[in-house]
Design a protein that fits this description.
Layout: E1 2-3, E2 10-11, E3 16-21, E4 33-40, E5 47-52, H1 59-141
């Protein structure tokens, strides 16, 4: 088990590990064997190297278990993200339908107002013609 240098969290399994010997040649039998590994902190996602404590069993043997756990975690995260996205899509589709209905209502209101304004303009034109005729008759009389 390694400790993250950034946040101090304990990281139980190495992502990758390898065997290290410090001496070559005949003296290698007397030299101790070490296993080093690359660890990824689950809390801060920092990667760091550290010595694997159990030198009799390389961390690579448990690496498959770690990979399976990570795949499970990624799958759970993707499932959660998919659920959230589906919910957001449902909300947006509902909002879209509401906005379309509101736009249709505004169009109907605008058409009614246009019709009313056209009627008023027609009436004003008729009054204008009537006034012009009245003024024309008055000017001819004077």
């Amino acid at each position: 088990m390694a400790v993250c240098p950034n946040c101090g969290a304990e990281v139980p399994v190495a992502v990758k590990s390898w065997h290290v010997r410090f001496r070559k040649g005949k003296a290698h039998r007397a030299s101790p064997d070490f296993y080093f590994g690359i660890f990824e902190c689950p809390a801060c996602r920092a990667r760091f190297r550290s010595r694997v404590e159990d030198s009799t069993k390389p961390a690579g043997a448990t690496c498959a278990k770690s990979v399976i756990e990570r795949i499970g975690a990624v799958q759970a995260g993707l499932t959660r993200t998919l659920r959230i996205l589906r919910e957001r899509m449902r909300i947006l589709e509902t909002e879209r339908a509401g906005l379309i209905m509101e736009i249709e209502e505004l169009k109907k209101g605008a058409e009614l107002r246009v019709d009313a304004l056209e009627g008023e303009v027609k009436q004003l034109r008729e009054e204008l013609l009537a006034l012009k005729e009245l003024l024309g008759a008055v000017e001819q009389a004077t």
